[in-house]
Amino acid sequence: MGKLPFKLGIHPINWVGEDVREHGADTTFEQIVDDIQALGLTGTEMGRKYPTDPTVLKAELAKHGIELTSQWKSVLFSDPAYREAELEAYRKHVEFLHEMGSTVISTCEVGGSLHFDPRRTPNEKEVLRFDEAAWRSLAEGLNAAGAIAQEYGLKLTYHHHGGTAVEQPEEIDRLMELTDPNLVYLLFDTGHAYYGGADPLAVLRKHYDRIAYIHLKDIRQEILDQARAANADFVTCIRQGVFTVPGDGCLDFAPIFRELLERNYSGWAMLEGEQDPAEHPAYEYAKKSLDFIQTLISQESR
């Protein structure tokens, strides 16, 4: 990989599904970190196959020359009744990431989500959008969580996400408008931006000053079109293969990388596929994606 101003890592979701539990169910932690090291990458997020004891995890990652960049944290701030318990859990999460040397916290509101909201029942069909009170409560909760992160020298990066109440471009805009820019940052995800109906480049340009972390994910247009025609939910879309690694789908990454290079983005950017590794082997797809990115970088550097 040629010289990049930012740090390129990879998410273990390429090997082991988080939203679709059968994807990569038999894959081991050792296989994941061996592959990451073989790819020449030095950053990973937390995955469900990883050791949870910080001492053990630090030692294992250090053996492979890898650092932990972040870990997903679901929150339920849109309902004020949950705030106190959620903030307590958030502090514990921050303490773990601080101990691991991470600098950002991938944070996502699950209120209203068909799949992630613990209050939803199995027979429901749609994501519930927020009313004014829920938006206000969410913003207040995120600001409070962001202040906790800041105490430990970390940044709360909000993950706009398919299948949640903050996925569409106007919802990303609303979240950024309502939250404190000194406490709440954005996790810019190319695949989730497109899935939610946004132009990823437009989101990147509009909210660049709030972006502190990036997920690089591609979309298979034909599968997205079929899923939308069938009114398929988010997890069904993953099972059908809507997401893939950069260079294997329909997104135009050239202007995205150009923007990042021109602006000297210096944070982490993580490769993500989120597809069945039995059909799309994680190492092979990541290698092809890195070659694709290398070609783009070379072209932009001329």
TrEMBL record:
It is an enzyme of class 4 (lyase). The keyword tRNA-binding does not apply. Its EC number is 4.2.1.44. Residues 34-295 form the Xylose isomerase-like TIM barrel domain. Keywords: Lyase. It holds the Pfam family AP_endonuc_2. NCBIfam families: myo_inos_iolE. This is Myo-inosose-2 dehydratase. It comes from Paenibacillus violae.
